[in-house]
Amino acid sequence: MNGSKVGRVFSGARPTGRQHLGNYLGAIRNYVALQDEYECVYCIVDLHALTTIETTENLRENIHEMALDFLAAGIRPEESIIFIQSHVPQVTELHTILSMVTPLGKLTDLPTFKEKVRQNPNNVNYGLVGYPVLMTADIVLYKTNVVPVGIDQAPHIEFAREVVRSFNYRFNTNVLIEPEMKNTEVPKVIGIDGKDKMSKSLDNHIEIADTPEETLARVMQMVTDPQRIRRSDPGNPDVCNVFSMHKIFSSPDEIAMVDVECRRAGIGCVDCKQLFAKNLNKRLAPFRQRRAEIEKDPNHVQDVLKDGARRARMIATQTIAEVREAVGLY
Ligand code: SF4
């Protein structure tokens, strides 16, 4: 590990293609910031994706677009490891070994498993049950010290810690490290429908790589204070998603202005949205410029992912050798 860093962070993200504002605010900007303090291992978890996706048709493209967004947002591949999960096959071996110390009942009792069963009643596959074990393998394979998670993900890390303890106890070893949680503030970003969490599947998202014109068009579709029907009606910014976004992307003066003017119908929703879109586009401009630069080299993303997998395999090979030794495999 690099001597100037305080530990190793691991985080996995499903390959969902071009990223939206919710991904950016909830994960990507945190990924970028963590690089200053930690050695970071960022994994695009394609195997996890197989548990629920219906087709793999867009998988490669989704991985490429997502990695491109990560790099353009500021993930530094010369420092951090960014790679595709299935390019390090040791993770599946560790998954199998860890599954031997994981009680089945514990897996089927997990609220996340029950939720997945509810969402995909016609595809309750074995991979879905073992998902948390594979996730644990992801984390511990890279000798992770810290996993950044929002509070709702905390049970997953606690689960991983329990599996590590079981393994170390069963085989009288300490080769696997119990990961610590790093609670990160993950804002709940509501989609343009003003109802649900921003998500591609609900088509209520704003992609960060959109053009300024596309962004403006999406912003203009945002649902505002439902009580404000006419331009002359006073609005309530406290219940308006556009105002929540202003709080993140606009200046303090602009936020204060909207807060006051909306309540006395001094500003209309069209103007308010245009202001937000302008600020959002301004904030995303450097990212979009970097993205366009990276795209000029069609092999860059692939080269980065290849090199990331090579470096990840070096750590994984060492861990697996220690695990095999501890277990007593011949
Ligand atoms: S003026 Fe702005 S904050 Fe007020 S309801 Fe319209 S969009 Fe929302």
Structure keywords:
elongated; binds iron/sulfur cluster; Tyrosyl-Transfer RNA Synthetase; 13 helices; Rossmann fold; mainly alpha; two-stranded parallel sheet; 53% helix
Spell out the blueprint of helices and strands.
Blueprint (H helix, E strand, L loop, with lengths): L7 E6 L7 H14 L4 E6 L1 H4 L9 H15 L7 E4 L5 H10 L4 H6 L1 H9 L6 H16 L4 E4 L4 H17 L9 E4 L28 H9 L20 H9 L2 H12 L5 H27 L4 H28 L3
Parallel strand pairs: 1-2, 2-3, 4-5
The protein binds iron/sulfur cluster.
Question: Would you give an account of this structure?
Answer:
By secondary structure, the protein is mainly alpha-helical. It has 2 domains: 8-189 and 298-327, HUPs (Rossmann fold, 3-Layer(aba) Sandwich); 212-292, Tyrosyl-Transfer RNA Synthetase (Orthogonal Bundle), CATH 1.10.240.10. The chain has helices at 21-34, 46-49, 59-73, 90-99, 104-109, 111-119, 126-141, 154-170, 212-220, 241-249, 252-263, 269-295, 300-327; strands spanning 8-13, 39-44, 81-84, 146-149, 180-183. The strands form 2 sheets. A 3-stranded parallel beta sheet has the order 1-2-3. Strand 4, helix 8 and strand 5 (180-183) form a beta-alpha-beta unit. Helix 9 (212-220) packs antiparallel against helix 12. The radius of gyration is 22 Å and the shape is elongated. The structure holds iron/sulfur cluster. Iron/sulfur cluster binds at residues 224-225, 228, 235, 237, 240, 242-243, 258, 262, 267, 269, 272-273.
